[in-house]
């Protein structure tokens, strides 16, 4: 990777990534809110012109038309939200999206469709007294080849129990702090890793640390990432139900058996279907994660994946584009990096058409660095079944108090500013230095 041009040390105007096949993907980079918010600022305007000039040269030279033009930020919808909060008209916003950022028309349409769904939550939900509790369970049954999340594989039960002791201490201290500040718990999200590697006693322990303070039947959304079907049993699902979990994720990533082996997942497609049916029988809203652009997959594989998933009718489908993570096995072992703009665009088109014609609508989206085809991740939902937590975290609508290894809190200081608190990423540090994180939370709250 090379930075073509830097302004100061911290703002990179353009970056180029050289791929294995010799092709170059570039980003003409922006902090996405800058132009809309400060379009009269001369320095920012100059920067815009420089980035656009680089963009135009690279676009012609490499013969690519990135869907999102010069934009590289993660939170695209937030640009629209911020602009609207700053009284920009829809026409004005459209002009900037099209002419300044050079976003393609079908993507602009997608952004407005998403904003339409999010809008009902933005006005109704945004509340500086609300908070959302995230709990991190950084353990997995095996590592997926594309993954770089902090997660430990095949961890012994006693080591997990030591972690849970610190985690429960952090959860209780965090909730006590929120209660002291008169904050209201809006949603709960237990994520990972793969939280469903925990046994029933461990799951009960986590939920009892929350239900000590709150009646979870009154919390509008309690999500538990049960990612891998091979970690689920009737007993475990009933335990989640008893603990008032309302929404779980069962993630196939793909519905093609040949790919599951390649990406290091130790379950079959049949496991996905059986555990899905069992979970529905017990009574959960279900999300299913898929990834487009997985090694060896083409349009027909993606068509098969989305057709099979839509047949199951989960409430939510989260469609990721493969993102190349430096620390993943995929990058370490194969150095695979392919741009595939056209293929990714077609895959998204197939998924979009199938979802929309089956009653799903896009309800949140975000982008990542090194994302295949320079595309995006999109969450689809059946009507009125959106995951509130996902919209809150992506659009930074409310405070997130996160507990556990690698978890990241975001504490809203007012409607615009928020302060991050990042937790330790090693088990040893997490277990021995948790009080430092709690002190940081006290300071910021
Ligand atoms: C935090 S991960 C948890 C996954 C869960 N442990 C499982 O095995 O299903 C959440 C989701 O992020 C997506 N994801 C993770 N790494 C990715 C990558 N490199 N590119 C695209 N999507 C990725 C996957 O779809 C995954 O289900």
UniProtKB/TrEMBL annotation:
Keywords: Oxidoreductase
Biological process annotations from GO: porphyrin-containing compound biosynthetic process
UniProt xrefs under SUPFAM superfamilies: Radical SAM enzymes
Pfam families per UniProt: Radical_SAM
Taxonomic lineage: Bacteria, Bacillati, Bacillota, Tissierellia, Sedimentibacter
Enzyme class of the recorded protein, top EC level: oxidoreductase
Name under which the protein is recorded: Coproporphyrinogen dehydrogenase HemZ
Assigned EC number: 1.3.98.3
Listed GO MF terms: 4 iron, 4 sulfur cluster binding; coproporphyrinogen dehydrogenase activity
GO cellular component, one term: cytoplasm
Domain Radical SAM core: 125-361
Native species: Sedimentibacter hydroxybenzoicus DSM 7310
NCBIfam families: rSAM_HemZ
InterPro entries the record matches: Coproporphyrinogen-III_oxidase, Elp3/MiaA/NifB-like_rSAM, HemZ, rSAM, rSAM_horseshoe, rSAM_sf
């Amino acid at each position: 990777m090379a930075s073509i041009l830097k302004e100061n040390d911290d703002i990179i105007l353009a970056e180029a990534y050289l791929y294995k096949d010799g092709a170059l993907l570039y980003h003409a980079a922006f902090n996405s809110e800058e132009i809309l918010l400060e379009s009269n600022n001369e320095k920012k305007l100059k920067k815009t012109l420089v980035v656009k000039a680089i963009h135009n040269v690279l676009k012609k030279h490499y013969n690519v038309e990135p869907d999102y033009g010069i934009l590289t930020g993660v939170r695209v919808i937030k640009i629209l939200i911020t602009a609207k909060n700053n009284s920009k008209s829809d026409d004005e916003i459209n002009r900037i999206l099209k002419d300044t950022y050079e976003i393609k028309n079908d993507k602009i349409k997608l952004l407005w469709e998403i904003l339409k769904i999010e809008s009902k939550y933005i006005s109704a939900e945004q509340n500086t007294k609300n908070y959302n509790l995230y709990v991190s369970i950084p353990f997995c049954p095996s590592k997926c080849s594309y993954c770089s999340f902090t997660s430990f594989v095949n961890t012994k039960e006693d080591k997990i129990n030591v972690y849970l002791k610190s985690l429960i201490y952090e959860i209780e201290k965090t909730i006590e702090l929120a209660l002291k500040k008169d904050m209201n718990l809006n949603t709960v999200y237990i994520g990972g890793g793969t939280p469903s590697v925990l046994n029933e006693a461990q799951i009960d322990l986590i939920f009892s640390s929350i239900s000590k303070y709150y009646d979870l039947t009154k919390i509008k959304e309690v999500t538990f990432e049960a990612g891998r079907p091979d970690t689920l049993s009737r007993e475990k699902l009933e335990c989640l139900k008893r603990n008032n979990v309302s929404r779980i994720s069962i993630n196939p990533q793909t519905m093609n058996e040949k790919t599951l082996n390649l990406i290091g997942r130790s379950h079959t497609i049949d496991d996905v279907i059986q555990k899905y049916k069992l979970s529905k029988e017990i009574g959960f809203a279900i999300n299913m994660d898929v990834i487009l652009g997985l090694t060896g997959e083409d349009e027909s594989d993606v068509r098969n994946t989305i057709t099979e998933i839509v047949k199951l009718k989960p409430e939510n489908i989260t469609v990721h584009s493969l993102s190349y993570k430096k620390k993943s096995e995929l990058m370490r072992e194969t150095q695979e990096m392919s741009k595939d703009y056209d293929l990714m665009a077609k895959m998204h088109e197939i998924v979009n058409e199938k979802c929309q014609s089956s009653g799903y609508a896009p309800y949140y989206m975000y982008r990542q660095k090194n994302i295949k085809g320079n595309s995006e991740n999109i969450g689809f939902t059946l009507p009125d079944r959106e995951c509130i937590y996902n919209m809150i975290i992506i659009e930074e609508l409310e405070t997130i108090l996160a507990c556990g290894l690698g978890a990241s809190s975001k504490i809203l200081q007012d409607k615009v500013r928020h302060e991050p608190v990042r937790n330790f990423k090693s088990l040893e540090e997490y277990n021995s230095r948790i009080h430092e994180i709690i002190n940081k939370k006290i300071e910021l709250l």
